[in-house]
Amino acid sequence: ENSRIALPVGSNLDRFIMRNQEDFPYASGELSQLIRDLAYAGKVVNREINRAGLAGITGAYGAENVQGEEQQNLDVAADIRFTRALKKGGEVAAIISEEAEEIIDLQNPRSKYIVAIDPLDGSSNIDVNVSIGTIFSIYRRVSPLGGPVQMEDVLQPGKDQVAAGYILYGSSTMFVYTTGKGVNGFTYEPSLGEYILSHQNMRIPENGSIYSINEGSFNSFPEAVQDYVNTCKEREYSARYIGSLVADFHRNVLKGGIYIYPSTAKAPNGKLRLLYECNALALIAEEAGGAATDGKGRILEIEPSELHQRVPFFVGSKAMVEEASN
Ligand code: AHG
Ligand code: MN
Ligand code: MN
Ligand code: MN
């Protein structure tokens, strides 16, 4: 258990980060500043999401991203906001983004950190006013500071993350993150412009009775996944699938449950991307006592080979992920 004196619920993210920093004796504050920069960008994106319908920034942007997906205006707007905030913050050397085919080199060669980000997760839900999210991973550069960013800096396994988190733009907006000492959730109070500590030391229930999977692709699931889904039905579990990974994941963390995006005919390696979706949520899951696999081994052990690679994703309550993974 982390030794830190529990902060009273109600303290804000800034104070929590400061207290957290004491746990890293040699920290010189760059990581703290980086987390603040992400939290700030989240406030800006939150405001744009809450008024998207009025500001005419819903709908399609009119271009495709490297995934072959039709970019939504908010995908692009969020990508710009996070990239700009990290560039200005000065703590990040390069960004990997779902919305950028290549590494975004921020020309800060002396900066220690790399960020992998899904600026807006759940794009299909933007125009229908359903919860969406942002997912981020933070790594330390491995190549010499001052030199150009290398592929080895951005293709690191999830177990080497320095921090990871997500923002959920839901009925309330939440900032949830870990630096390897447990998971803490902050609820945004717009009237103060502050994230307030609301979910201290989040733990995923060991077991659960909620399963989240897009059964539209049932016929092309691997047989083991079909068997597991049928078992969930025999046990009369609840099926909950929002279609926004962050929202489905967050509910399963609080209530217990499993989210699966398996191999399908349309997506033989699954749809979710290792670098900016699966690794971050896998670290959060394990830090909260849950589990995350690709159906065989730990997500966090996978050595990435390309920026936008996809992996099958099984994440949530430990007992459920272990049963569903063979
Ligand atoms: P993104 O909007 O960042 O591309 O991610 C969407 C993902 C994830 O959020 C969601 O769970 C999944 O796509 C839904 O995919 P299906 O519509 O194929 O179920
Ligand atoms: Mn997308
Ligand atoms: Mn996504
Ligand atoms: Mn996205």
From TrEMBL:
Subcellular location: Cytoplasm
Binding-site list for Mg(2+) 2: 118, 121, 277
Keyword Magnesium: yes
Cofactor binding mode and count: Binds 2 magnesium ions per subunit.
Keywords: Carbohydrate metabolism, Cytoplasm, Hydrolase, Magnesium, Metal-binding
GO MF entry, a single one: magnesium ion binding
Pathway assigned to this chain's UniProt record: Carbohydrate biosynthesis
Subunit structure: Homotetramer.
UniProt record similarity statement: Belongs to the FBPase class 1 family.
Protein name: Fructose-1,6-bisphosphatase class 1
Source organism of this protein record: Roseivirga misakiensis
